[in-house]
Design goal:
With 487 residues, this protein is an alpha+beta fold. Helices cover 27% and strands 21% of the residues. Strands 1-2-22-3-6-20-21 form a seven-stranded antiparallel sheet. It has a four-stranded antiparallel sheet with strand order 9-8-7-14, with no helix packed on it. A four-stranded antiparallel sheet has the order 11-12-10-13. A hairpin with a 5-residue loop joins strand 16 and strand 17. Helix 2 runs antiparallel to helix 3. The termini are far apart.
């Protein structure tokens, strides 16, 4: 009877030289990955690789010896799919991933319908916090609608070494910070849970599952993916005055493709100019023609005199370049920023941090002194005012569930009174380039470093929802275009 040693030697000898070379290359990649991960216990998995490639004690390929042709055919496909899924899992987790732009918050830098390649190695890939998940979907299985991940086991936040940190002006993909609690029917809509809580009560939401669905918690890396521009770095003080961002008291240059909303008096009906709209990159859904009563028109004429001689009044999101083009071609008779005509829109009720921001607007934000963006190791004084600014950071992001503002105006953390707090993470202030139509940090606050996913490198492909596939539906001029031309 053949003993183990002889059997082991025979299995080694049966492998061709090419298989040893493949195993050697895989081993080099594997140990480089282990070193990058910084956890040498993972090196024990090498013995599994050794068996898969060389010794074959575990019968992973039992089906190859089956006499049933159908079994061999089906299992060959299963084998290929499993290997592909494992490869995709590691690429998506540690290298990069494709993401779709679903909204207009970064227009005209990134367009609705853009598919981006997001590089996770620039800032260092985040080790998956929910490691057991289906690699091709984010948090819900298509058709089935169930979660695509298991809550357990879960890992603490850890980021591998990257090429650099997030820099001012970077476009960043991150998990939605306010997406820790969701209502299942509205998870992918702008109506996120905490906004709904401001409008209704938790009891009202729970009592109407047919409208809101189930209330659920999402772990950090399973929250919805957002993409915005990093405009405020850890430790900086930010405020906005007349649409200009000030960092530590210094005005910042506008991104090249930043756009604002305008009330525009035109010489022609833009609804009938689809080719012009397509050329400028204005979505048909963004062309809002306004109808005013005679009394309202008289009031509007005092603010926008050109409107008195134009039958066409629109609300449009425009960049400075688009304004120049429309003006040169004689379409614009006059225009004013929307917030100059309608200075109060009720947005103050939902700006961060409530209730401090009740006098702020999207264009004038942060008050007299601005907002200090938390940085790792920074200590802030805690009082009734600063608590509203940093409450979510302390409670939701840094894990101090038992932290609250008492009736006496004192802050308690972990059951003890606290006059100061030292942050354990870096935070960022994110904004969209479509400044008046972007749900961003002005509404839901700071983005913690553990929510950062990566940065878009280029556009893979782009689809225009307003055009048919064979009539400009594919934006060929955007394929492989730099995703952030301002950097």
């Amino acid at each position: 009877m053949e003993n183990f040693t002889d059997n082991f030697k025979k299995r080694l000898a049966d492998n061709k030289k090419t298989r040893w070379i493949r195993f050697g290359l895989v081993s080099l990649i594997f140990f480089a990955w282990v070193a990058w991960m910084g956890n040498w216990w993972l090196a024990l998995l090498w013995f599994l690789l050794f068996d898969i490639y060389i010794t074959g004690y575990i019968p992973f390929t039992w089906w190859k010896k089956s006499n049933n042709k159908a079994v061999r055919s089906v299992m060959s496909w299963v084998d290929a799919i499993v290997y592909a899924l494992i490869l995709v899992y590691f690429i998506f987790a540690f290298v990069g991933q494709n993401y779709q732009i679903p909204s207009s918050s970064l227009e005209k830098t990134l367009l609705t319908g853009d598919y981006l390649w997001v590089n996770k190695m620039v800032y260092g890939p985040r080790v998956p916090m929910t490691p057991v998940h289906f690699p091709l979907v984010h948090n819900k299985m298509p058709i089935l609608g169930c979660d695509s991940y298991l809550d357990s086991p879960s890992l603490s936040y850890r980021r591998l070494k990257g090429l650099r940190d997030v820099e001012s002006g970077d476009i960043v993909v991150f998990n939605f910070p306010a997406g820790d609690t969701i209502v299942t029917r509205l998870e992918e809509s702008p109506e996120y849970y905490y906004l709904l809580r401001q409008r209704f009560s938790r009891e009202h939401i729970e009592a109407h599952p047919e409208i809101f669905g189930e209330i659920k918690f999402r772990p950090v890396d399973r929250r919805q993916n957002f993409v915005k521009r990093a405009v405020g770095m850890p430790g900086e003080t930010l405020k906005i005055v007349d649409d200009t961002i000030y960092i530590n008291g210094k005005p910042q240059a506008m991104p090249q493709n930043v756009q604002f909303s305008y009330i525009v008096a035109t010489s022609a009906m833009l609804d009938n100019e689809p080719e012009l709209l397509h050329e400028l990159g204005i979505a048909e859904s963004d062309v809002n023609r306004l109808n005013f009563s005679q009394e309202e028109r008289e009031i509007l004429a005092t603010i926008l005199p050109e409107s008195s001689t134009s039958p066409y009044i629109y609300m449009l999101p425009l960049t400075s370049e688009m304004i120049s083009t429309l003006t040169e071609r004689g379409y614009i008779k006059g225009l004013r920023k929307t917030n100059r005509i309608f200075p109060t829109t009720g947005e103050q009720a939902f700006l961060f941090p409530s209730p401090i921001a009740n006098e702020w607007t999207l264009s004038n934000y942060g008050g007299k002194n601005g907002l200090l963006i938390p940085a790792r190791g920074t200590t802030v004084k805690l009082n009734a005012t600063t608590w509203h600014i940093y409450e979510r950071c302390i409670r939701n992001y840094e894990g101090h569930d038992d932290a609250y503002l008492a009736d006496d105006g004192r802050v308690y953390i972990d059951g003890k009174p606290a006059d100061t707090y030292t942050f354990g993470m870096n935070y960022y202030f994110m904004m969209g380039d479509n400044r008046d139509l972007s749900q961003d940090s002005r509404f839901w606050g700071f983005v913690p470093e553990d929510h950062v996913v990566g940065t878009p490198m280029f556009v893979l492909i782009s689809f225009d929802k307003d055009r048919s596939m064979f009539n400009g539906g594919i934006r060929w001029n955007r394929i492989f275009r730099d995703a952030n031309p301002d950097k």
